[in-house]
Amino acid sequence: MKEIVGELWDYYKKLNTVILITTNGFVKKNGCGVMGRGCALEASQRIKQFPALLGYHIQKNGNVPMRVPGEPILTFPVKHSWWEQADLKLIKRSAEWLAGCDDSYTYVLPRPGCGNGKLDWPTVKRVLESAELQDNVWVISHGSN
């Protein structure tokens, strides 16, 4: 795992790069996943069908990572419900899944659970390190936050 500073969306559709969107497992009555804040909101604004795809995926498979069809994007579940604090066990499970992904790609992940998830980076960093992520996983931040 490498730490970098920058903007997540600068890596969108770059050759051999996949961005990760932190998500929660809540599905609204209309069948769409909740994507109301942070990089999830940004993703839903760029890819209009994303909330419906996420909702369907959660209903069918549970709150587990998914690949967005036709996009260089994976989800990285960090919460069970949108209003809760991020869950370190869920972050670890998502990180372990990511550690098993195709190593011919670079994966760019915002600090999971550290924005709207209300967790602190040193704690989350230890969880990610315990998942033994390789150097093709870049954790991106906006600077000294």
Describe this structure as you would to a colleague.
The protein contains four helices and five strands. The chain has a five-stranded parallel sheet, with helices on both faces. The protein has one domain (2-141): 3-Layer(aba) Sandwich (Leucine Aminopeptidase, subunit E, domain 1). The protein is globular and about 40 Å long. The longest helix is centred in the middle third of the chain and has 12 residues, at 50-61. By secondary structure, it is an alpha/beta fold.
Beta-strand percentage?
A: 15-25%
Per CATH, the architecture is 3-Layer(aba) Sandwich
> How are the strands of the largest sheet arranged?
1-5-4-2-3
Unreliable parts: none
Measured as a percent range, the helix fraction is 25-40%
CATH class descriptor: Alpha Beta
Count of the separate structural domains: 1
Span between N and C termini?
Answer: 18 Å
Q: Round the Cα radius of gyration to an integer and report it.
A: 14 Å
Summarize the biggest pleated sheet. 5 strands, parallel
> What structural class do helix, strand and pairing data support?
alpha/beta
Quickly count the helices: 4
Silhouette: globular
Average pLDDT taken over every residue: 96
Strand segment count: 5
